[in-house]
Amino acid sequence: MVRRTSRGTLSAILFLVLAACLGGCDSDGSTPSKESTMSSPSTVSMESALARYDKMRREMIEALDEQIGQQSWGDAPNEDGIIRAACNDDQLAENVNMRTLVVKGTYPEKSWKRSAELVEGVGRKYGFDTIKVVVDRPGDFSMTGLAEDGASYSYGLRANTILGVHTGCHRWDTKPSSGG
Amino acid sequence: MRDEDGGGGSTGSVVRLETTQLRAALAQLTTLADAVDSQRQQVTQETPIAVPSLAEGGPAALTAAWLRDQQPGLRDLLDLAVLLETHGGTATYVGTGTFTDARTRIPTEIVNALDGLDPDDPASRGALASMEDLLGRYAEDPEIGHEIVEELGGTGLVHVFDSLAVDPPSGDASPDEVNAWWSALTPTQQLAVTLLRGDKVGNRDGVPAWGRDLANRAQIPLVRKDLEDQLADLTEGQHGYEPYGRGYYLEPAEAQEVRDRLAALDSVDSTLDLGGRQLLLLDAYSGDQVHAAVAVGDVDTADHVSVFTPGFTTTVQGSLKGIDSDMATLRSRAQQELIRNGSLDTVATVSWLGYDAPQWDGVVFPSQSVASDDLARSGGDDLAGFYSGINASREQDPHLTALGHSYGSTTTGFALQHEGTGVDDAIVFGSPGLGTSDRDDLHVPDGHLYRIEARRDPVADLAQFGIDPTWLDGVDGLSAKDAEIDGIEYQESTGHSEYLDDGTTSQHNIAATVAGTGGQVHDDGHGAGDVLTWWPEWMR
Fold this sequence. Notes:
- The structure holds two protein chains of two kinds.
- Chain A has helices at residues 9-22, 35-38, 46-67, 112-125; strands at 73-75, 83-86, 93-97, 101-103, 130-137, 140-146, 152-157, 161-166, 170-171.
- Chain A is an alpha+beta fold.
- Chain B has helices spanning 19-46, 59-84, 99-115, 122-130, 132-139, 142-164, 175-184, 187-196, 198-201, 209-235, 253-272, 316-340, 374-392, 407-416, 505-515, 528-533, and strands at 13-18, 90-95, 277-283, 291-296, 304-309, 347-353, 399-405, 425-429, 449-452, 476-478, 484-485, 488-489.
- In chain B, the strands form three sheets. An eight-stranded mixed beta sheet of chain B has the order 3-4-6-5-7-8-9-10, sandwiched between helices.
- The longest helix of chain B has 28 residues, at 19-46.
- The chains are: A alpha+beta, B alpha/beta.
- At the A-B interface, α1, α2, β2, β3 and β5 of A face α11 and α12 of B.
């Protein structure tokens, strides 16, 4: 049997309303506040943004190849292409999760920190100035670079190595069909 | 029968077709062609001297090829016999009896057979089901398929599908019972049901995701038309009453409700347009709000499926796009976790807006208020069925994770109080309570129920619906804090609404749990708010 706490309804309502507003409620009623999807869309087209991030990833891989060791990067086999998503502030803009790049296997663990610095250095050239280290423990490392426009990249090492990019909000010059 | 080919036409003599003989002839033709080919190859391999008549392109090979070439014509003749068959396996008609003659007659005879069917007559349904192989074969034959469609016309096709469609079991059937009904249908019947009984199967737990998706998508234009008609009725003649001056008329409140429902349909439509989605729930009528559930990925085949339930103020029209965007990114992160851990498993993430979440305008109404658990309780019943339906609709259960945020975590809590949902892992974040103060009420395996509470999230310390999950024994804490590296403290997610923000530890923990990879960052610490919500055991 479910037992309920005996709280004053009015105070609970006031507390919830306050909490919801503290949390970032907005006029359209959506609770989650999404920096990535709520930020103003860029004037750069999605095609240009994807090309730019593709170039950034190539530079990251080149830096890793040169300074840590050559690896064979390829598309993640458990993904089937880009994943598009909507942006709240602009009906015509979208954000995209690019297909993750993967290395089967990884670098020697002693070079992980250096590899993260190389990725971070290239990322900063492309505006990813905020770095969040999500996991850093023996045999397990994951970090994210964040840009002002809500874009992010993820770099992680464990059994395999991954490099993913999530764009900010951009409009397509030519919107893809529903298939992707 | 007459077996010479060439020439067609409707004139000729009475041709008698025996289906038994034709079936036997077709089988013998296949056997004979295989035998000629096999013997030719065997002799060629075993004979040291090249025999021209047995070589590729020689008389023997051509004979085998000719025999195979006769099979489609004989198949047409057999199909015509089946279509014309009256009794005892014999059919007669006036014609030439040639293969070409048979092929010319087939579209008309198929249309005649279909025209005679009565959708309400079980015998007709049986007859049509027995024709499925034949219909399937000619549907893929451009020449005959085109003729059939042309002769039937759109209405005729609907009539045919209507004959195949059968109603699902009653509303109180379990997801397993619904799936048993679905599985007993032929593929054509399943297609017919999704297209013509979409309102009855699109939201039925136990129907596979592809069927629900197809059925619900087919409903969108019908629901839109209905709502537009309702809106036209509600606003008709309103221009004559202008209490606020010329051009400003008072619109009935119901009209705004209909507009909101149409806006919800727009939101669903534009989310589906992004591609890679499945519409697993669409209900524009039964609640105060439109209900919908949209998956990113394929729920029928994904190894890992998560279902996210949002909370206070969320609606399909206002929130679906943002939540779907979160789920798209969560899916990417979970798949990245999998591949980082050496797995090629796939993930599908579902945004479940399948209940009337409390809204601002309901705050003053006890049963609709965010301070009441009524909406969470009834939503939890539906959510439990949705969870169960995922497992029931698949041959192999996926790893299923329940995610609930804020008031949605309370709804999730009530859902998890149902037995047999198939949920393997559950995470509640920013939770004001799970509708119980007893872990044993929640049917999630030990060690697989988690809570995340960010700093400065007062909702997570409300303990409005059962005790604060922080103090619930058997609920493990996952971190919302960032890591520290080389003495540098990185940003963390704080407040009530950043749990799914990209790059946060909380998002990582949710992704790792959805992926089933482990490797979450745990945090069993307590914040200042938790101290205030601690109650001694005997008071809980």
